[in-house]
């Protein structure tokens, strides 16, 4: 008698032989490989272009700012500056929420702008193929192809009567299921090859080994879970048609319905105020703080009194610094505190919603792989919020640097009389040499160990699904 | 005659509360061919499936070589070759590939020459050996399955309507093969409608009607069972 392992391999080889001779299976393989390879290639090329473009635009934006002529510093505060987020290497395989959140941010005084230039907002319906990312293909389409390929692995034997014949040859149902499972996993590995090659390319582009390895491993695990689902249903079903319709229903449920329920549940359980509501609340709070453009605003009386006492003078005109610039600095600091408070509240709500949605990963392997994939790629919500915080720090530094110039680069009199004449306007400017205040900005996602640590929960969810399915398969196999 | 190899003792099988086999008892000794004759629904295939461990007895027992089939099905199946009524081989594989595959699963791989000899022995035309079974006639598939059963060299054979779909020449060849295997020591349980074929090869014939053995005929020394006697009994049973 052959050992169970050699029988399992013989069954797996025969299943592959069946697929090689089946035109349906060949078509499925060609489609799966073509989709995976095309999505990897197109997204890699697109990301390489985007990275280059963003680096170029970042440099252009800095040059444009520094090339401004002699000006009043507050005009430069409103002239503003752009920050661009270069995508991390693994974004070529999973752009994550980048395509929806935008990749650039306009920095200016008194405002915390959101990210803009989201790819999804720029694309028309005709370019939907541009969003056919490797992650999308692997998460949504590959399970469908595995279903088409494998729905009949067990029911075919049952319908043809070969199941009983195999049993009489001494092949136990569990060994048969094992062989079919190995064959299906082999098919999953073949479809995963373009992603593996894409992963190796990201390594060459500077991605860390650990997250890339974990990224590929998580997709292998995800496809293993789908192979187990296909195997389980095919073992339980009595006919090919029952197996196919059951698997399609499960795919719709796990890949379309549960993710929708997850996002809806998150918005219901952790309701966040709308943009209009938030904008009004921010505005109300800012109005209580005084207008930073008006140095005579009573809100700045304490600041004025303190300065007068500090410099031992009677009026702001006698101060050695421009009081308007000091007000602008104080106002920007206060305003930033309020804006940051609202931004942090909003980000905490987003995190809470994401946490609720992620908990549905216990039910849907697709939600689990989405989270693991984005976290490992550095394209998840946490990395987006990290970019927003880093951008805000840059904005505050750059605006306050200009406000400092406003305070120290001219007198209050020059500043107050700037609209009197052309000469007065000229006097109320600072030299263009002062615009060299922007530091090079390079956004770095979370470190590799942090990204791996953040993905652990999603990976545990995938392992859990795999373990549950394994038990289900063994129970179903014993009843065959 | 030597020891009992195939033994059914008070075998009862119920399927969804319907009694398919009712207290069936019979035995076959080594080198013996036992044929069970019966009409549709008499319980012939159920008897074989119970011996193969594919169905469980409600009461009673089935033993092969002294081992209860349901206590140790894996060990018992090593000794068994099975030829089903409708051949359960793979349509995407050729005759040679089917035989190679099933033999590898049962741990008894055969050389190409042995496979060729077996296929010649069952008179499957050589031009068809490397064509997918999907394009075979029922008789050609049956011949492939017989070749597989021969190559398994199993000491116990279960044949379910083995000559169904075969042409007269192939039936004669098959009956000759069965007799030859039995003379070499194989014990064979065959269920069939074919009274004349059964009388030609069997040492004993049991008549099965509505799940009960209603008659048993033994072949005389160096002779065949009288087909007219069996046919009359079979026809009477069928009319009841």
From TrEMBL, chain A:
<protein>
    <submittedName>
        <fullName>Delta 1-pyrroline-5-carboxylate reductase</fullName>
    </submittedName>
</protein>
<dbReference type="Pfam" id="PF12679">
    <property type="entry name" value="ABC2_membrane_2"/>
</dbReference>
<keyword id="KW-0472">Membrane</keyword>
<dbReference type="GO" id="GO:0140359">
    <property type="term" value="F:ABC-type transporter activity"/>
</dbReference>
<feature type="transmembrane region" description="Helical">
    <location>
        <begin position="244"/>
        <end position="262"/>
    </location>
</feature>
<feature type="transmembrane region" description="Helical">
    <location>
        <begin position="456"/>
        <end position="477"/>
    </location>
</feature>
<feature type="transmembrane region" description="Helical">
    <location>
        <begin position="136"/>
        <end position="154"/>
    </location>
</feature>
<dbReference type="Pfam" id="PF12040">
    <property type="entry name" value="DUF3526"/>
</dbReference>
<feature type="transmembrane region" description="Helical">
    <location>
        <begin position="174"/>
        <end position="197"/>
    </location>
</feature>
<dbReference type="GO" id="GO:0005886">
    <property type="term" value="C:plasma membrane"/>
</dbReference>
<feature type="region of interest" description="Disordered">
    <location>
        <begin position="51"/>
        <end position="70"/>
    </location>
</feature>
<keyword id="KW-0812">Transmembrane</keyword>
<keyword id="KW-1133">Transmembrane helix</keyword>
<dbReference type="InterPro" id="IPR021913">
    <property type="entry name" value="DUF3526"/>
</dbReference>
<feature type="transmembrane region" description="Helical">
    <location>
        <begin position="209"/>
        <end position="232"/>
    </location>
</feature>
<feature type="transmembrane region" description="Helical">
    <location>
        <begin position="23"/>
        <end position="42"/>
    </location>
</feature>
Automatic annotation (TrEMBL), chain B:
<dbReference type="GO" id="GO:0016887">
    <property type="term" value="F:ATP hydrolysis activity"/>
</dbReference>
<keyword id="KW-0813">Transport</keyword>
<keyword id="KW-0547">Nucleotide-binding</keyword>
<dbReference type="InterPro" id="IPR051782">
    <property type="entry name" value="ABC_Transporter_VariousFunc"/>
</dbReference>
<keyword id="KW-0067">ATP-binding</keyword>
<dbReference type="GO" id="GO:0005524">
    <property type="term" value="F:ATP binding"/>
</dbReference>
<dbReference type="InterPro" id="IPR003439">
    <property type="entry name" value="ABC_transporter-like_ATP-bd"/>
</dbReference>
<dbReference type="InterPro" id="IPR027417">
    <property type="entry name" value="P-loop_NTPase"/>
</dbReference>
<feature type="domain" description="ABC transporter">
    <location>
        <begin position="6"/>
        <end position="235"/>
    </location>
</feature>
<dbReference type="Pfam" id="PF00005">
    <property type="entry name" value="ABC_tran"/>
</dbReference>
<dbReference type="InterPro" id="IPR003593">
    <property type="entry name" value="AAA+_ATPase"/>
</dbReference>
<protein>
    <submittedName>
        <fullName>ABC transporter ATP-binding protein</fullName>
    </submittedName>
</protein>
